[in-house]
Every structure is written in C-alpha cells, then in structure tokens.
Automatic annotation (TrEMBL):
The keyword GTP-binding does not apply. Residues 1-211 form the Protein kinase domain. GO terms for cellular component: cytoplasm. This is non-specific serine/threonine protein kinase. It catalyses: L-threonyl-[protein] + ATP = O-phospho-L-threonyl-[protein] + ADP + H(+); L-seryl-[protein] + ATP = O-phospho-L-seryl-[protein] + ADP + H(+). The keyword ATP-binding applies. Belongs to the protein kinase superfamily. CAMK Ser/Thr protein kinase family. PIM subfamily. It is an enzyme of class 2 (transferase). GO terms for molecular function: ATP binding; protein serine/threonine kinase activity. One of its GO terms (biological process) is negative regulation of apoptotic process. The gene is LOC109202441. Its EC number is 2.7.11.1.
Length: 212
C-alpha cells in the first residue's frame, strides 16, 4: 500500500522531486520477501521531535505556528487525494533547516491507506499513546477527525515539554502553557476535543484565526 500511495503522490507532483510536503519516492524494488523503497532525503533536515529538543524542549508559539500552518495544508492536500496517513506525529515530520523559515516534509507512509471522507475504521493503526479518544470507547474512527486530533497532539508537544499521552489526557485535565495566545489555545482545544463530531475539519483549521 505504501508504494501505491507514494506512486500516486509522485504522479500528482508530475515527477518533480522535493516540491511537495510528502518526501518523494525515487525508486522501489520488490524482492518477494522484502520491499525496498528509495526515497528523497532532504538535507539539511531533522525530524520535528529532535528539532523541538534542539530548541530547548518546546518551541516559541510563532515558530510552532509556521510549522503547523504547513502541516495542516499538507494534511488537507492528502485528504483531497483520499490518502489517510494514520500516523502524523513529530517523528514523522521532517523540518528542512536550509533557510530561516523551517519547511515541513512528511515521511513514513507505511501505515497509510486510501480512504474516503466517510470511511470508518475499527482497529487503530498508529502510535498507541496518541490514539484518539473515540477508540477508547470502542467506536470506529474516521480519517478527518483523527488527523485533526493528530494536529492537536503535534502542536501540544511542540509547545510543551514532554510527550502527549491520550490515556493521561482522558484521566485528568491538560496543563497548558500559560503564555499561549487565546487563538492558539482555542486551536488546541478545538483539535483535542473528545467528541470527534465536534472537532473542526482540516478546512476549518486552515481558516482558523491563529493561522491567518
């Protein structure tokens, strides 16, 4: 599935390497028992997890905004191509550091699948500690609300020291950086809403005042 998705992304990009947020597939080899993917390697770049650590364990709000705006746009583009990444997290986001403005690239489509807006899934494939709340209630999850939840998780980890854990989130109220702007706090609250139907869409997030 990963190859099929990356081939679709390459076709959409007209074969151009490095022009889209997802890293480009350069070649692939099927050896029967294993599949080898040759992918673009942006240089210089570091994953967002290490980028945050290198910046003292959390990012200034304005820097986080630059990253989240690109990430939301990239996630919306994947949604329009009917691609559900399933595991958007700081370790699967590369930050190109060759210019003053960090550039977002998305990697690791190993858990991704093709999905329509109304598709529903029973078994969660992704990072366990970031599982959306609806899965804990035994309900099926949908691509859009799950991806929005992951936007909130990425942003929370960018602005706070330490990892986000859904189980902890469900057991006690989250502690927020008291220096966040009201728009940023509203963006976080919206993404991390317990009820998936009450979360904004990716399109809504693009229009959110915090990203304007």
């Amino acid at each position: 599935m990963e190859v099929a998705i990356m081939l679709k992304l390459a076709a959409e990009a007209d074969g151009s390497v490095g022009t889209s947020a997802p890293v480009s597939l350069l070649d692939w080899f099927d050896f029967g028992t294993e599949l080898i993917l040759v992918q673009e390697r942006p240089v210089p770049a570091v994953d967002l997890y290490d980028y945050i650590k290198e910046n003292g364990g959390c990012l200034p709000e304005e820097k986080a905004k630059v990253i989240l705006k690109q990430l939301v746009d990239a996630a919306k583009d994947l949604e329009e191509k009917h691609i559900f990444h399933r595991d958007i997290k700081s370790e699967n986001i590369l930050i190109e550091t060759s210019s003053d403005v960090p550039r977002v690239r998305i990697i690791d489509f190993g858990l991704s699948c093709f999905a329509m807006e109304r598709s529903r899934f029973r078994f969660f494939y992704g990072t366990a500690i970031h599982t959306p709340p609806e899965c804990y209630r035994g309900k099926k999850y949908r691509p859009g609300p799950t991806t929005v939840w992951q936007m909130g998780v990425v942003l929370y980890e960018a602005l706070h020291v330490g990892d986000f854990n859904t189980e902890t989130f469900l057991q006690k109220e989250l502690e927020f950086n008291k220096h966040l702007s009201s728009h940023c706090r509203n963006f976080l609250d919206a993404c991390l809403t317990n009820v998936p139907k009450k979360r904004p869409t990716l399109g809504d997030l693009q229009l959110h005042p915090w990203l304007r």
